[in-house]
Every structure is written in structure tokens, then in C-alpha cells.
């Protein structure tokens, strides 16, 4: 409902991330040991972030998926 309302802030889990619209800032929390979920959600979040992508979690896991130095 928050996403459909077009509000500035909304929550989406990994399964819904692909349906999320672009936002100026996207914040992703990678928690747990589900590498497959992170591998799916992070690239989607990267394409949806207009100006800034903030990723919190294990730097090795994040770097492996995004190919970036954190």
C-alpha cells in the first residue's frame, strides 16, 4: 500500500523488490545467510536507486554481488 501511494518511504522484502519503482534513494539491509536473496535483491536495488544506494550488511557478500568496493 505504501508503494502504491507513491510516498517517499516504503518497505519491501526481497520478493517484492522487483516490483518497486525507482526512488532517489534506496536503502537495503542484507541480513542473514540467504546469499540467493541478496544476489536477487541487490542488482534490482542498484537499478532502482536514482541518486544513492545505501547497503548495510556483510561487505564481502555485498561486493561479491555488486562488484563494488565498500
Describe how the helices and strands are arranged:
Elements: H1 2-5, E1 23-29, H2 35-48, E2 49-56, H3 59-66
Helix pairs in contact: 2-3
Describe the protein.
- This protein is of the alpha+beta class and 70 residues long.
- The protein has one domain.
- Helix content is 37%, strand content 21%.
- It has three helices and two strands, in the order αβαβα.
- Strands 1-2 form a two-stranded parallel ribbon.
- Strand 1, helix 2 and strand 2 form a beta-alpha-beta unit.
- The chain is globular, with a radius of gyration of 12 Å.
- The N and C termini lie far apart (33 Å).
- The mean pLDDT is 78.
Keywords:
70 residues; alpha+beta; 21% strand
Cα radius of gyration in angstroms: 12 Å
Number of strands: 2
Tell me the overall shape.
globular
Oligomer: single chain
- Assign a percent range to the helix content: 25-40%
Output the helix-strand order. HEHEH
Number of domains: 1
Q: N-to-C terminal Cα separation, in Å?
A: 33 Å
Number of DSSP helical runs: 3
Can you summarize the main beta sheet?
Answer: 2 strands, parallel
Amino acid at each position: 500500500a505504501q508503494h502504491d501511494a507513491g510516498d517517499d518511504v516504503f518497505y519491501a522484502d526481497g520478493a517484492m523488490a522487483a516490483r518497486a519503482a525507482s526512488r532517489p534513494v534506496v536503502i537495503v539491509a542484507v541480513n542473514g545467510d540467504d546469499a540467493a536473496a541478496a544476489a536477487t535483491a541487490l542488482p534490482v536495488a542498484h537499478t532502482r536507486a536514482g541518486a544513492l544506494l545505501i547497503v548495510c550488511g556483510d561487505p564481502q557478500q555485498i561486493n561479491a554481488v555488486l562488484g563494488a568496493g565498500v
